[in-house]
Structure formats: C-alpha cells, structure tokens
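Posting this for the archive.
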Amino acid sequence: MADGDLERAIQHAEYRAPWFPINSPCNKALNAEARQTSGTPALYAACQALDLPVVVVDGERDIRPRSAVDSLVRALPRVRRVTLAAAGHLPWVEDPYGFRDAVMTAAL
C-alpha cells in the first residue's frame, strides 16, 4: 500500500463477506469492553505470565495508533516483533509473503 493510500486501507478494513454483515451492536460492545480493559494492571499481568513464544506482526503503514501494539510487545516476556514496511492494518492481506515469512521464521 502506498504512503497515504487511505482509500485502499479503508477497503481492506471494510472487507467482509456480503452474507455476514457487520454486527454493529456486537462491535460496539466489544470496543467498549476493550476500552475498559486495555492497559489495566490485570491484563498486563496476564500477558507477562504467558510462558510461550509470541511473534507480533504489524504493518508500518497502519493508520491506527501504534501504542496498542507497543504496549503488547512490552508486556509479553517472550516476544519478537516483525514490522512489515509495505503493510498497514492487515499485514496478512497487504503483504502476504512478508507475513508468511515472519510467521514461518518466528523461532524465538
């Protein structure tokens, strides 16, 4: 995705099967819950307690704030982060080969 290609980012973000429309009440409820729990000490502690390797793959051109991914990476004890330069919010769609390589070489 080219720098500033907001239209394409929105197309990817809105992608869904036509027979499964967005469930707006569910979406609102999940977002409200996420706002209440994100950054809480209990959630941070739960992440710190995970004793397994994690690879976090994100896109450098994501139009959403990077703070959520940054805090997740800080909280996980056995984490490797791969940021794909050519991807935005959906790295598996926007850079499928880069995403595959990041996941396949995720040995920690």
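The beta strands are 54-59, 79-84. The chain has six helices and two strands.
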